[in-house]
Amino acid sequence: GAVVSQHPSRVICKSGTSVKIECRSLDFQATTMFWYRQFPKQSLMLMATSNEGSKATYEQGVEKDKFLINHASLTLSTLTVTSAHPEDSSFYICSAWRGEDTQYFGPGTRLTVL
Amino acid sequence: GQQLNQSPQSMFIQEGEDVSMNCTSSSIFNTWLWYKQDPGEGPVLLIALYKAGELTSNGRLTAQFGITRKDSFLNISASIPSDVGIYFCAGRKAAGNKLTFGGGTRVLVKP
């Protein structure tokens, strides 16, 4: 069964609004989670590393003030897309390492900004 | 960002055929993971490899961790229609816990 969940699975919002996406590890604790963005027919691109109890680490070119990450507990990380614009429309996927060896992905969240 | 070189980019399969794909890199990885992604869903882990030279099977899937630590391949034997999807390789280096992804191999069914 699924080991990482995401909510919501789909969201449509108006331009200028903010959207929060949740990522949960279901049967394990994750001190580190990852947020990816995937455009159609492309591979996954890492946006940021979410660290429990500390600030997220953002990849080059990713605006930390636009993509707010909060990792408040060992099983929950949230990504908030602030002041969303149509170009932020994408498939957002989170992941987490279970143990040291295996990284599992959530089912993804399809964001559409009108 | 850096990507692994994954090939082929796409391929058509006929039911019953064997399928092969591979990933190469100019740098060393200490873990290789293979994922399958169906449309509108997150990647699902197929096989994980941890040692150079390791050959691991999962049902009709077989993957190997290259001896140089710079490559890996995935084979699917006797393909079936549900094998259609996008397959990604991903590598993790010795230091750190980020994954680097290949560009994906899109497996399609021959009409």
Give a written overview of the molecule.
The complex is a heterodimer of chains A (114) and B (111). Chain A is mainly beta and 114 residues long. Chain A contains no helices and eleven strands. Chain A has strands at residues 4-7, 10-13, 19-25, 32-38, 45-51, 57-58, 67-73, 76-81, 90-98, 102-105, 109-113. In chain A, strands 2, 4, 5, 6, 9, 10 and 11 form a seven-stranded mixed sheet that branches. Chain A has a four-stranded antiparallel sheet with strand order 1-3-8-7, with no helix packed on it. With 111 residues, chain B is mostly beta strands. Helix content of chain B is 0%, strand content 50%. In chain B, the strands form two sheets. In chain B, strands 2, 4, 5, 9, 10 and 11 form a six-stranded mixed sheet that branches. A five-stranded antiparallel sheet of chain B has the order 1-3-8-7-6, with no helix packed on it. In chain B, a hairpin with a 5-residue loop joins strand 7 (61-65) and strand 8. The model of chain B has no long low-confidence stretch (mean pLDDT 92). The interface between A and B is medium-sized, with 26 and 24 residues.
